[in-house]
Specification:
320 residues; Non-ribosomal Peptide Synthetase Peptidyl Carrier Protein, Chain A; seven-stranded mixed β-sheet; two-stranded antiparallel sheet; 10 helices; 9 strands
């Protein structure tokens, strides 16, 4: 039974508090498997919420209250923290840094021509070897899930898919939001359909935008690792791509990229163009695995299948 007496003092006098709190408790209860929920319930220790279920809860809260939750949502410990955040967000009129609905930015004819040139140059400058292209569907959209060795990965991934892309305006990818303000990278991210995401605080708007794109016939690229490897080994695979596949009812195409880390390691300024010691071009290999259907599978099962496929495409080895 709801008891407004447990509301924290600093927002105790707000008339709208009781109304919001009741709705929030109802939403949290529906995402907590029917457990008893109060304002004092700890999201992690009492209700068992993890990072993925927090994302799902954030989406539900945003939809219910027509707000955009900021990074505080992902530091909230108790249900009352979410209530406080909703009240503050409802009264916050701070303008957004960017409008996520504008991404991916629609490409002009000139940008399409530039994109084709960039893809052709990529094939020429580096020796691109592609396998498993038969696993890419031509009559259905999909989510590409490659490993993440380098800043070159997005370009090489779409370049490898190239022969199967009939509409270059219908490709997009999740990118770190800071890349879209970078004087160089922002131009490439527009070409490859970048959708900015705040990886460290609130990735929900970007994933919702990806869902809209998938339902509009786009093909989406998402790195399940979330960030470039620092030591040459794959990072933990996150469940965002799997959840997106379930919601959009589209297949996931696992893929393995090798060689880009040698060309352009993290924290280096420019990519290598030629192996001067051997006087030859660097090789990049891209392998596509068999499609993974999200039907009748959990997020955890799909994520495990993606990682297993990516590992097997590289013979369980990762280049150093």
């Amino acid at each position: 039974m709801f008891n407004s007496q447990i509301v924290i003092d600093k927002i105790y006098a707000l008339e709208i508090w009781d109304e919001y709190a009741k709705d929030i408790i109802e939403i949290v209860t529906s995402h907590a498997g029917g457990q008893t929920v109060t304002l004092a319930s700890h999201l992690k220790y009492d209700l068992g919420f993890n990072s993925l279920s927090m994302v799902e809860l954030c989406v539900a809260i945003e939809d219910a209250f027509d707000i955009t939750i900021d990074e505080r949502m992902f530091t909230a410990e108790k249900v009352q923290d979410i209530c406080e955040l909703v009240v503050e967000s409802k009264n916050d009129r701070t303008p957004k840094v960017y409008n996520i609905e504008k991404f991916p930015i629609q490409k002009t004819r000139r940008q399409i021509r530039v994109l084709k040139i960039v893809m052709n140059i990529s094939r020429t400058v580096w020796r691109l070897e592609v396998s498993g292209l038969e696993n890419i569907p031509i009559n259905a959209n999909y989510i590409l899930c490659p490993n993440h060795q380098s800043r070159l990965d997005i370009m090489m991934a779409w370049t490898a898919v190239g022969p199967k892309i009939f509409d270059l305006t219908k490709i997009c990818c999740l990118v770190a939001q800071e890349l879209l303000t970078h004087p160089v990278f922002k131009r490439f991210m527009v070409l490859f359909g970048g959708i900015p995401t705040d990886r460290h605080t609130n990735p929900v708007p970007a994933f919702k935008r990806c869902l809209d794109c998938l339902r509009s016939g786009f093909n989406v690229l998402i790195h399940p690792e979330g960030t470039v490897t620092k030591d040459g080994y794959m990072n933990e695979f996150k469940g965002g791509a799997a959840k997106l596949a379930i919601d959009a009812d589209v297949d996931i195409i696992p893929m393995r990229i090798e060689g880009t880390r040698t060309i352009w390691r993290l924290y280096t300024l420019f990519p290598k163009i030629l192996d001067w010691r051997r006087m030859r071009r660097y090789k990049v290999t891209v392998s596509f695995g068999e499609a993974i259907s999200p039907k009748k599978k959990s997020v955890e099962e799909i994520t495990a299948l993606i990682r297993k496929s990516v590992e097997e495409l590289g013979n369980n080895q990762y280049s150093q």
